[in-house]
Write a structure and sequence with these properties.
The chain has 180 residues and is α+β, with helices and mostly antiparallel strands. The protein contains four helices and eight strands. The chain has helices at 19-26, 42-53, 102-116, 132-140, and strands at residues 2-5, 9-12, 58-63, 69-76, 86-93, 122-128, 144-156, 162-173. Strand 7 (144-156) and strand 8 (162-173) form a beta hairpin. It is globular and about 45 Å long. 29% of the residues are buried.
């Protein structure tokens, strides 16, 4: 079941067949914020794809012509939010598919889905200060920078040492949203 399609992409639920592509980009995540999603085998990727298939907050981003997984989106709302109409969104793409406009295209479709189908009032994203491509994506989507939280989160680096990153908060309201 897809939640959205664009001219080049399908945004849908994960399935077991996504495991090899999921392994390709989660074997060595580019950003420290995704190190906890690191996968080391096809069997682990199958388990992860199956778990994501049952997780309503996870969305596979696939090429329309081949249905090949190139990244994923996630969006959360509920008990951890100040109100149920506030959603947190994020994204992670295969390094091979960065710089092609897929993030803008798919996240725009996700925002349309959240605002129009899920009745979101506000969407926000956490972005590490050094993640220039995600910062530019937020700006292209019309999100405003709301603040910087110094040493807000701790990730482990490649050597399993704690790394404290400064995190930026971007947000957009439904009344501010216009399709990108």
């Amino acid at each position: 079941m897809s939640i959205a399609t664009t001219s080049r992409l399908i945004i849908r639920r994960f399935n077991r067949e996504d495991a090899p592509a999921l392994l390709r980009y989660l074997r060595q995540p580019v950003s420290p914020c995704f190190y906890d999603e690191k996968l080391d085998s096809l069997a682990a990727a199958v388990r992860e794809a199956e778990a994501r298939a049952d997780d309503t907050s996870q969305f596979a981003v696939c090429l329309k012509e081949s249905n090949l997984l190139i990244g994923h989106l996630f969006a959360y709302s509920g008990e951890n939010e100040p109100d149920v109409n506030t959603w947190s969104a994020g994204w992670h793409f295969s390094i091979d598919n960065q710089g092609k406009g897929y993030a803008t295209e798919s996240v725009s479709a996700l925002f349309n889905y959240l605002f129009m189908q899920k009745n979101a009032r506000r969407i926000y994203a956490w972005v590490e200060e050094y993640n220039l491509s995600s910062r530019r994506l937020c700006e292209r989507l019309g999100m405003r920078l709301e603040g910087c939280f110094k040493e807000f989160v701790s990730f482990t680096d490649e050597n399993d040492e704690p790394r404290y990153d400064d995190t930026l908060s971007y947000a957009i309201l439904k009344k501010e949203w216009c399709v990108v």
